[in-house]
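PROTOCOL LOG
Step 1. Enter all chains and additional molecules of the complex.
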Amino acid sequence: MAEIDPSAVEQVATAARAAREASRRLALLSRADKDAALHAMADALEAAAPDVVAANAEDLARGRDAGMAQGLLDRLALDERRVHGVAQALRDVAALPDPVGEVVRGSTLANGLQIRQVRVPMGVVGMVYEARPNVTVDAAGLGLKSGNAVILRGGSAAESTNRALVEVMRATLEARGLPADAVTLLEGGRDAVRALLTARGLVDLIIPRGGAGLIQTVVTESTVPVIETGVGNVHVYVDAAADLDKALAITVNAKTHRPSVCNAAETLLVHEAVAADFLPKVLAELAGAGVALHTDAAAGAAAETAGVPHTDATDADWDTEYLALEMAVRVVPDLDAAMEHIRAHGSGHTEAIVTEDRAAARRFTAEVDAAAVMVNASTRFTDGGEFGFGAEIGISTQKLHARGPMALPELTTTKWIVEGDGQVRA
Amino acid sequence: MAEIDPSAVEQVATAARAAREASRRLALLSRADKDAALHAMADALEAAAPDVVAANAEDLARGRDAGMAQGLLDRLALDERRVHGVAQALRDVAALPDPVGEVVRGSTLANGLQIRQVRVPMGVVGMVYEARPNVTVDAAGLGLKSGNAVILRGGSAAESTNRALVEVMRATLEARGLPADAVTLLEGGRDAVRALLTARGLVDLIIPRGGAGLIQTVVTESTVPVIETGVGNVHVYVDAAADLDKALAITVNAKTHRPSVCNAAETLLVHEAVAADFLPKVLAELAGAGVALHTDAAAGAAAETAGVPHTDATDADWDTEYLALEMAVRVVPDLDAAMEHIRAHGSGHTEAIVTEDRAAARRFTAEVDAAAVMVNASTRFTDGGEFGFGAEIGISTQKLHARGPMALPELTTTKWIVEGDGQVRA
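Step 2. Run joint prediction.
Step 3. Record the structure below.
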C-alpha cells in the first residue's frame, strides 16, 4: 500500500489528541449535564434549520450536476421538517438511560476485596459513513450520551451539510463550557480516512456505515479495532410446516417494506412440500409489488404456471444483496438444505424461518449462525428502534464486542474497580 | 509486506475449514458431553504423562543447545507432576458453568415479539503464544467448554511438547465420537502464522499471548479481529493520605511476588508529602528483596540518605515493563501529577492507589483509564483466578469486547433469537 501523506497523518493525530482531551472530560460528565447539552444541541439545530437547509442545497446542486441517482439525492436531502426530525432524535437520546456507570457484575471475594465491572466510555470513536447527513447528528448524540468523543467522516456528497450540522453542535457545546472537540468533522481526501483508520492508540474504535465496498475498505485497512456493520444477505425460509398466510405476509413485508436497507430479505427459500401451494401466491404478490424475481428451476416452473415474469437465477444471485425490489427464489428439499444454503450464502445478519413445527424452529435458531434469527416474524425487525433500544448506531455483523443492533451500551467498554483495605497476594 | 507463501495460506485455510466444521458440532454439544470430554482428556493426559515428559525433554535439550535462558527453560519444563497439574486444570474447567445458552437480556415487545440475546460460541479461535506448554491445554479446554474450535500456534521452542499434548487431546475427542478438529496445532514457519492472522472469514478471533513484540506483530498484521493481551506497565501510587504500612506491603507485594508477570508493578509514584517518611522504608525493603531501583532526583536523594543502592531513572525507565526485580520510583507533587504520569506512561492494564482519602480514591478510580483500577490492594489481583472466574485465557488490555481478565464468557458472542406468530412491520 502507498504511504499515507504525512500531513494527513499529522492532521488526524492532532484532531484525535484534541478528541482524547475532550473525551476525558466527557467521561466524567453527569447524566444531567449530558442530557441538557443534547437538548441544547437539538434547539440550536432547529434554530439553525434555514442555514442547514441552505448548506444542504449546495450539496444537492453539486450532486445533481454530478449526475447523482435520485435515490441518493433523496437520502441526502434535508428540508426544515427533516432538520426538526434530526433534532428530535437528540432529545430521544437524552431520554435514554445513561450507560456510563452501570455495574455489569461484581462480588466480594473471599479475601474481602470488593470488585465490580463498571461501564465506561470507549474514549474516541471514529465513524466512517456515506451520504445520509442524519448519521452525523445521531453519531454525535449517541457519542455524547455515552461519554465518547466522535470523529466523523461523512461522504463528500454531504460535505456542506455535515459542516453546517457539526458547526452548530460544536458551538452549542462550547457555549455551555463543554469541549467542542467532543464532535469533530474530519475533512480532507482519501489519505485523511486512511490516517484515521491507522491512528491506533489515538482512536479506540472505528464504526463504518455504508455499502459493502466502504465496509470492506475499512475492515481491510484499519489497524484500529473495527465493528463491521450492515451487509445483509438475508433469507426467509418457508418450512414444510409453515402457516402459508403468515409466510406470505412475512415474505412480502421482508422484501418490500423498505428494500434499500440491510434487514430487507434478498432470497426466499421454500420447502418443496409447500412449493406448489405457496409459490404461485407469493410470486404473484411479489411481482405485483414490483419485485423482479430470480428463480431456480423449480421456482421458475411455478412462476411459469402462474404466469409471473421471472428470470433464471445465476450463481451470483444467491450472493447478491440487491437492496432493491429484486428477490432470488429457490426450492429446497428440506430444512438441512435450507440451512446449508444460508451457511453458504448468508452474511450473518438476519435469517428467518416460517414454521409451526417446534422442532424445526429449535433447530433453525440453534444452528443458523447470524446476529438475529427469527421465527415467524419479518426480518425487518432487526433494528435498534424495534428492539426497544431507543436508538441505533449500526447493526454489527461481526462477533466481537457487539452483534446485531448497536446502541448506547455497545459504545462503552468496562473497567474493573477493586477496593480493598491493604490486601496482598500470598 | 512480502506476499504470504500460497502453500501456507492453503494449509491454514484447510485447517480453518476443518475447525469450522468441528465448531458447528461443538456449538450444539450439551454441557454434560463437553464436561465428560474434558475429564476424558484430563485422564488421557495423565496416562500419557511419560510420553509428554519425553517429548518435553527433546524441547529442553534443543533449548539448552540453543543457549536458552534458565528462566525460559523453567517455563518450558514439564515433569509428571506438572502434567498432572495441567490435566487438573481441564477438570477445573469442566466444573465451571457453561457460558453457551446464557440469556444475557430479553423482553417481549409491544407487538408480542419475544426477543432474547443468547450467548453462543465464537466459532474458530486462533491462539498465538510463546513457550509455556500449559497454555496449549488451557486454551483447548476453555475452547471446548465454550463450544469453540481452537487453532493453536505455540512457540517453536515447545514444538515437541505441544505436538504430544495435542495428539493426546485429539485422540481422546475422536475416541468419544467428537470432532478431533476441535483442537488443531498449527505447524510451519512464519508464513503459517501470517496466513492465520489474515484468514478473515475463516477464523473469528485471534488471541495473542506473550511479550510485547509478539503482541505488536499480531495486532499489526492481523485482519482477523484480535484481542490484545497482557502488556502491563503497572503503577502503584502512594497518596498523601496513604496508610504507609499498607502502602509498604502493597508496593513490595506488587513488585516482588511474581515479577515476571503482567500484573506486577513497574513504577512506584509517591506523593511528596509522605516521601520523607515512606521512601527510606520502602526503598530499603525493595532493595533488600533484590529490586534494582531507578530513581528520580527526589527519590534518589532519599535512597542516598537511607544508604540504598540506586541508579538515576532515564526517560525510558518510565515506559519500561521490566518483568524483573527492577522498579522505577518517582516523587510527585499531587494526585493530578500521579494521574498525568499514568496517562503518559501506563499501558491500561492495572493501576493502584493507596489512600485513606475517599475523595482521592473516587477521583483515581473515575479518571484513570485502565482495565483494572485498585484502591488499597496489590496489583497482583488482576487475574481470572483471583477474580473468581475459575480460569483465564489472558488479560485484555484493549477496550473492544473484553477488558481485563478473560475466561469463558469472553470466548463467546451472542445471537438474538426473535420469536413471533406472524408479525410484520407496519
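Step 4. Note key features.
The radius of gyration of chain B is 24 Å.
Residues 234-386 of chain B form a domain with the Aldehyde Dehydrogenase; Chain A, domain 2 fold (CATH 3.40.309.10).
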